[in-house]
Amino acid sequence: MDHHPEQRREQAPGVGPACITQRRGRNAEDPYPQCVTCYWRQRRNPRVASCRSRDRRCAQLQNRRVHARVAGLGHWPVEPSSACFIVERCYIHGSPAQKVQKGILANAADVRIADSWIDEIHNSDFDSQAILIYDSPGPQLIENNELQASSENIMLGGADSSRPDLVPSDVVIRRNHIVKLLRWKSDDPSYDGLAWVIKPLIELKSAQRVLIEGNVLENSWLWPAFVADAFNQDGSAPWSTVQDVTFQHNEIKNAIAVFQAWAGSTPVKRIKVFNNNATGIRYRIYAPVGPSYAVGTFFYLINAEDVWIEHNTGQPMDRGTGCIEGGTVNPRLTIRNNVFGYGHGGFLVAGSWRNDNAAIAAAAPDFTIAKNALVNFGDALGTPPIPYQQGRWTPSGWILTGPAAASGVNPDGTLKAGPLKGFATDGTDLGVDLRALETAIGPGPRQ
Fold first, then answer.
1. Region 90-116: what's the mean pLDDT?
2. 112, 194, 204, 422: which one has the fewest Cβ atoms less than 10 Å from its Cβ?
């Protein structure tokens, strides 16, 4: 490995006799100046390829029979093909103008990526990911990291798993700061002139039993912040699916939309979106804006089953509350106890101007929609702004409350005294429980 002047063999606690300890000096530019050790153990030494300026993958551990613990390295991106792989307190990075396709490719069983900083992962020719997993039985833990990438900061799927039992499973994504830098955004004053491929902050294309909790997701100007789009990507994995996903207690800042679920070539089912707080959700976050109904709203659904959206707060949502794509079927949809901006369009079924209970029932059989507040946050499309008019349609379960101040909604999503307090079906306040969200986020992630 480069950049590590001191290297010696020693016994590492809990790792075994065949260990290499790497010690590096302090560096004022590293976010982890007290990095100390790198451990790995295996039957044969791994081959470690150091980064070169034209590489898309900067370091690679080759040998599936690896048990590895990497701790405290300031190094370039790592692509392990191993089992029992742990990355802790590491700085994994490209440079501002470098094309880097992956920070970590974690196709391994029993992976932990924690307390690390991954940045400058971007590419103008291909998607790039801070963390990519597509061929793993799990479990995977991604916790308390800073993750910066121009395309998917975290991607599960995106390439075909080699066997049905290698669909990424039992994944926990907790207490991370997941962000795109505004100098990658072409209409921002800080734009650096480099046109990288931009994708969502988190995307699931094939994954099951996933918990996404206590994260801060920031800056997603071309895609919804969280996307669950199920695809048999290369046509060789018909078992691909996205199912049993919980997205809860997250803070979303400055995104074109919060959540999209789309059963592309394979099913999307059992998605829980609970107790999230979203601010700065705008259609006009980027110029020019795109034509999709997904933008400027909280959610967009295309043939997704058993989606449950409850106790979230989203604002201002200048285009509308949420959208079901016309001509699709989204059975057993639950939308309950939320506080949403209604912007220009409110809640709609795309292509249907009727938008009553019958239209919703056709797009979402056996739906449950109850006690959702539609609030005017003073931001709607049009010149001058044209806010939504409830008289256009009359579905049940939505409460038009008027301006945010009169509704008792504070700018941070909390409620003061007003009609929304204690009004939920469970006797609590409508919208996000900010105390529970702050507890889940905890002392990290870095902001």
1. 92
2. 422
In the structure encoding, which two tokens stand for residue 147, read together?
């993750």
The number of beta carbons lying within 10 Å of the beta carbon of residue 217 is: 29
The amino acid at 272: K
CA distance 206 to 209: 11
Longest C-alpha distance within the chain, in Å? Answer: 75
Beta-carbon contacts of residue 204 (< 8 Å; ≥ 6 apart):
155, 156, 157, 210, 227, 228, 229, 230, 242, 245
357 φ/ψ angles, rounded to the nearest 5 degrees = -60, -35
Beta bridge partners of 301: 261, 324
424: amino acid identity, one letter: A
HSE, side-chain direction, 13 A CA sphere, residue 125: 7
Q: What is the pTM of this model?
A: 0.83
Terminal alpha carbon distance of the chain: 31
Distance separating alpha carbons of residues 191 and 198, to the nearest angstrom? 14
Is residue 262 within a helix (H) or strand (E), and if so which, with residue range? Answer: strand 257-263
Round to whole Å and give the CA distance between 3 and 47: 16
Domains of the chain: 55-336+346-366+434-441 (2.160.20)
The larger pLDDT score, comparing residue 354 to residue 264, is at 264
